[in-house]
Amino acid sequence: MDLTWHGHSTWAVESGDTRLLIDPFFDNPHTSLEPSDVADPDYVLITHGHADHIAHAGEFSDATLVATPEITGYLSEEHGFDDPIGMNLGGTVECGDVFVTMVRADHTSGLNTGYEHEVGMPAGFVISEQLPTQTTDAENTTFYHAGDTALMSEMKDVIGPFLEPDAVAVPCGDHFTMGPWQAAVAVDWCDPDYAFPMHYDTFPPIEIDVDDFVREVGATGNDAEAVVLEGDETFTIGGDDY
């Protein structure tokens, strides 16, 4: 599974013959790309309705949209997505070669910059190569995109022990989401092999020293490796080198 961070909360995930793009927002200082520079995704996943997460979704309207029914309804009307997958918290859908499970995120989800409309609950996504079950599958590779969230016990009680992410991407810019120390606790609770910081240094309120995240992850005593990616950098999990 190839994970590419395009800054902020924007991730491209490729597994098998399936490409997914999460929260496309390319007006951020960590990417040099325009939406047209990105390989066409098969699926676009949206965690919630804030402008810095749906900003460039319309540039990928040939893809299948995956989000809550409120968001799929709005974006289909505005941008012409055909046959979107409207799902909700706790559900799992098959998307090409992967399975996408929608999990909670503790945040808000207003639509558009002015937050004119509520559009359902915010979410995170767990992307796995096998259908999640209560039986551990050592061959399965799983990536957890936490969305915009505060620290929540579901990470410790459900996502970590049952969905078993190999890699997690957690917001750590503080102010609107977790800061470094809470993000590190989230990593500890999820117990992955790799942890990636996201949603930081995009705007002045979320500017941090990302080394604080690395230090805080180490301070938990967890074996997770904190990996700070450069914008548009790809990291591979699974396979012979994993």
From TrEMBL:
<keyword id="KW-0378">Hydrolase</keyword>
<dbReference type="GO" id="GO:0016787">
    <property type="term" value="F:hydrolase activity"/>
</dbReference>
<protein>
    <recommendedName>
        <fullName>UPF0173 metal-dependent hydrolase ACFQL9_04430</fullName>
    </recommendedName>
</protein>
<comment type="similarity">
    <text>Belongs to the UPF0173 family.</text>
</comment>
<dbReference type="InterPro" id="IPR036866">
    <property type="entry name" value="RibonucZ/Hydroxyglut_hydro"/>
</dbReference>
<dbReference type="InterPro" id="IPR050114">
    <property type="entry name" value="UPF0173_UPF0282_UlaG_hydrolase"/>
</dbReference>
<dbReference type="InterPro" id="IPR001279">
    <property type="entry name" value="Metallo-B-lactamas"/>
</dbReference>
<dbReference type="InterPro" id="IPR022877">
    <property type="entry name" value="UPF0173"/>
</dbReference>
<dbReference type="Pfam" id="PF13483">
    <property type="entry name" value="Lactamase_B_3"/>
</dbReference>
<feature type="domain" description="Metallo-beta-lactamase">
    <location>
        <begin position="7"/>
        <end position="199"/>
    </location>
</feature>
